[in-house]
Amino acid sequence: MSKKIRLGILGGGGDSLIGVLHRIASSMYDSYQLVGGVFNPIPEENTGFAEKIGIPTNRVYNDFDTMIEEELKLPEDQRMQVVSVLTPNFLHFPMAKKLIESGFNVICEKPMTTSFEEAQILKETLDKSDVLFAVTYTYTGYPMVRQMKEMIASGVIGKIQKVDVQYYQGWINPIIHDAEKRANTWRLDPEKGGISCCIGDIGTHGYDMIEYLTGLEVESILSDLNYMYSDNKMDIDGTVLLRFSEHVKGLLRTSQIATGEENNFTVSIYGEKGGLKWEQENPNYLYHLTEDGPLKVLKPGHGYNSEFSLDGTKLPPGHPEGIFDSMGNIYKGVAKAIRKEEYHPGEFPTMNDGFRGMNFIERVVESHQKGNVWVKL
């Protein structure tokens, strides 16, 4: 039995949802062992959290730079092999860059950076190294998303004609209408969140999902964003028209002020022979539409699914699989790559996904600021 991969984590302490998600995901498949990190910038809370989750405090460091320095002093067979970056957006770039330069594999939350310029620098840094870099566009890990990808690639729905993606949340609604709250929310602060809130946070998921599933690349976009108040610097709602080619077009609708919505992420892709639809809030159902037959509903765990889908299925048919499983599949793919085992190219998003995602975010904002015009990617 091979030894577990030694994992370090930056951020994700306290009651952070993303921290819980990554820790549980990394524990699936028995591939990783969390050995330390920096969970909180406040020393006593940092060590207190480590003790709470049962991590030895000798490798829980007061700050990021100290972690790098001390880990590099350890023999190679003892130091962290991969580090997950779960900090606020503005810290992704400096941390990821130094990790790559120091020889650590990286699993980074999205958006990968706060600007396309930073993404370009990070990509150049990675190109000069031999480390692995993954970006956690979590939803690509769902078994039925992977089944959808395989069906499209094998021509089940024929040549793609139309793409329609919606990602609606409502969590910013009670914040945006209160001047004090919107001024003190880090996701609405350009210094911490970057150039975009809604598109940067959830729109980039939709964009990555479109290219992941279809194998197509968006050529140009036209966007219309909503900031709601003149003192708010970050978009909280937006619609983006997409052009893949002259005859293949699409739509990405995103909002964080869709009152009452929780995490309504839906993907519809239509080809000349049929269509496929998937909803994140009901992830076990993949709908296959055709003109000459009844609606088909595919579910995970059955033999009619692809090997790629079944490899990411942990439970028998009829048992729900959720977002923890989806993230766990991404960690599983990264583990295979670190161990130099054979893996499917769609098992985890890469630097290229993060790189294109940052370009998309900036072009969306540019299109809006220029008066809602078409902008090439």
From TrEMBL:
Annotated SUPFAM superfamilies: Glyceraldehyde-3-phosphate dehydrogenase-like, C-terminal domain (SSF55347), NAD(P)-binding Rossmann-fold domains (SSF51735)
GO terms for MF: nucleotide binding
Domain Gfo/Idh/MocA-like oxidoreductase N-terminal: 19-137
Positions of the GFO/IDH/MocA-like oxidoreductase domain: 145-276
Gene3D superfamilies per record: Dihydrodipicolinate Reductase, domain 2, NAD(P)-binding Rossmann-like Domain
Name of the protein: GFO/IDH/MocA family oxidoreductase
Species of the source: Galbibacter marinus
Database matches in InterPro entries: Gfo/Idh/MocA-like_OxRdtase_N, Gfo/Idh/MocA_oxidoreduct, GFO_IDH_MocA-like_dom, NAD(P)-bd_dom_sf
